[in-house]
Fold:
Amino acid sequence: MPNDDFPQPPQIPKLLTVSSIDALTDFSELSGVKLSGADWVFASAQNVIIEECQLQRGMLTSADLPKLRLRDVRLEGCDLSAAHLNQVHLLRVEIRSSRLLGVQFLDADLNDVLFEDCNLDGAIFASVRGKHLRFERCQLKNVAFESAEFEKITFSRCDLHHASFFNTKLKDADLRGSNIDGVQIAPEAVKGMTITSSQALQMVGLLGVIVDDDEF
Structure:
């Protein structure tokens, strides 16, 4: 059955205060605001909390934001390329039409998170715990999932060319409609995964199984 009942969308008030924040500092807190064009390139701040907010065209390239907390947040047209996100917590977050080239999620908790029309080529998800994640029409070439644990994760119409899943648990994963050419994955991670019949032939090859219909 399709996993269409998740993730839960962010609960954002209809009326938001339009605001601007020049810089992020340690323990900054933002709530109930709409930010447009924020320039946080190379920002370095820990324990930042952003709740019930909408961020459009925000620039967070190479930002270092350990212990960032996002709850009920929508990001649109943002750039988080090469951002370092260590021990972050994301709950009911949507990231749409954004660039996350080489972004690093380390020791993070991602629950009810949607990535839609995003470029995450070269991203790293290491020691990440996630439930109800969905990647929709995303570029995920050479993405590395390492020592991660996911429950109910969907890759819909994504490009996972040469993505790697090392020591990663993929409970109730759905990869239908995605390109899995060259994916590196352990046999134990495949158990319970939903794929198409054509993907099954690819997966068999990826696991090193030789299919030969000739009989002796």
